[in-house]
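Can't paste images in this forum, so I'm doing it all in text. The chain is below; anyone willing to post the predicted structure tokens underneath?
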Amino acid sequence: MPLLRRAGAAVAAALAGAGVIDESRLRATTDLAWPRIVTGFAIMSKRTVDLALVGLVIGPTAVAGLTLANAFWMAAKFVAIGLAGGTVSLVSQNYGGGDDERAAAVVRLSVLIAAALAVPAVAAFGLAAEPLVGLLGGDRTAIGYGATYLAVVAPGLLFEFLNLIASRTYAGVSDTVTPMVVRAGGAVANIALSATFVLAFDMGVAGAALGTALATGLVTVVFAWGMTGRSYLRGRGASPVPLRVRGSAHDRELLGQIASVSAPLVARRAAQGLVVFPLLAIAATFGPVAVAAVGVGRQVRALLGSFSWGFSIAASTLVGQELGRGDEAEAEAYGRGITRLSLLVYLVAAAVVVAAAEPIAAVFVDDPANLSLSADFVRVAAISVVALGVDGSITGTLRGAGDTRVPFVATLAGAYLAALPLAWAGTAIPALGVGGLLLSLLAETAVPLVVNARRFRSNRWKAVSREYRPSAGD
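Text version of the structure:
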């Protein structure tokens, strides 16, 4: 341990000396970020485990089916992520400003909204899985696998909505360790359950879906204990802004603020989720192998995006709390430092994945022809994640200020004005082919980074934040 502490101190001093981030801010950032990074890997590992299991047991057609089904799951989940982004913004500013009652009211309202949004999605996915997956076209066998997976995993979506609100609530009060432990436990349960159902009981894609749904529900049960103000062990884990049944005098005002902050975030995330449908439909014209390769590439990028989970939530929380205290200069310093740190981390991570692209792709597919294409998508996904990671820190800063409209527009531009046309060009220009899909992976993250970076440098987000600070409601 002394050796690790000395190494950590040396790294911190080197980063400060290089002008990346001040040591005190680095400490506050890493305290919040590393549990969220672990949490991100734990959450994303569920989908990775399912893809790997069915890929190795059944084959690339099953991977293609799960990729189609996951598009629907992620489209719905992105809506919840948008709502949760509004939650962490308002909880952090009110908690940082010393108004726990308002922060707790935000949590209660967010939970109610999450449940109201999740129930219709669960019903639609469970009852109409096959026609929904069939809308994307492609191989009929792949559609069958996808429909089975979506129908079985659908109930887990309600639990995932609630889990996201719980995770962001803890992050808003500077506790990212509790959700890390709970989510990591859920990931272990998911691996055990899915592997048992798929390998021991030979349940195929239905077994993978059942394992994921049950593990997600287990996480909700565990979260419910701490979210209602009860501690787990040795007085730890109780939310300081506990969930209550009764409303508050601030409900009407806060409901308007949640809608104002979350609506652009929900729209932004929905745009990210919906663009996957035409992209997969385009990929399906090249066959199930191309769909599987796209799924592998996007899943690897999602796993790498777990670093951004930490940096983004740290930026939202620390920037939001400093703004809640009225210290705009310190808020900006945190935003700049975390952004520079994320760039450094993602350059290293991308280089490692590019170098190991083929072994990584082999986790999902084993046929040589399929392996080559999947490895290409892994390489490009790793390169594109650098822009994704840096943009995550910038949007985290903007989100902490409640400035969520520009990131929405930036996402639309990247997805629909850049990524989708490039993917379509592959079908219109034979020489380009699947290369259009590869270019779309790059454009989808690069364009939002440029737009959001300009917004951050403008400093307009500071003025936006003044509308949401506790004093604004007095």
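The chain has a mean pLDDT of 90. Residues 60-96 form the longest helix (37 residues).
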